[in-house]
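Mods, move this if it's the wrong board.
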Amino acid sequence: MKEIKIFIASSADLKKERKEIQLILRKESDKYEQKGVKIKPVLWENLLLDMGQTRKQDYFTEEMLKCDVVIFMFYSKLGKFTKEEFDTAYQNMKDGKNPKRVFVFFKEFNISPNEITEEILKLRDLKKYLEKIEGFYNSFSNIDNLELQLKNQLELLIDNDFKEENKQSESSKEYKSGINIHQSDCENAFGNLTVNGDFNFNPNKSTEKKKIN
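Not the wrong board. Structure tokens:
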């Protein structure tokens, strides 16, 4: 069964929404397990919270980078560690590493000019940065709206990524089957053929070095 690990990150003011997303993903996992896909939500609250030799945030970031997808949520503050996680996740994604997908959600709110804080300005800067790099972000007004968007994105994610993996798997099976057929044909055509020296053939091993982007 294919497992998709989804890390949920947010500033402290969206703790309730973070828990709600965890429940939503668990319910969706029950549905998609019938299709061979298991969804595993990951929250830092569910990780090991002991005192370690290194900074705890480094441990959380390490666990985040083991996930296939990361969901970031922002509301009235950017959050020092959440921004740090975002920068790391985005850079890793550009480098072709985990996470393979990054989703960003902003919770909507109304604010008067005299209520604008430094944190609000940081959020605006993040939106401008996402627009500059042509990164798409989503907005939601309440948990029902967020749930609807998550379900739609999850369906697209599984349809696109999981089906593509299945196609590659099937192509690999066909390739291996073809190799076996050709080897069998050769044996039937030439019978017992003695060759001086050893000849090893591994269809799954390429001698060419591939460039890693």
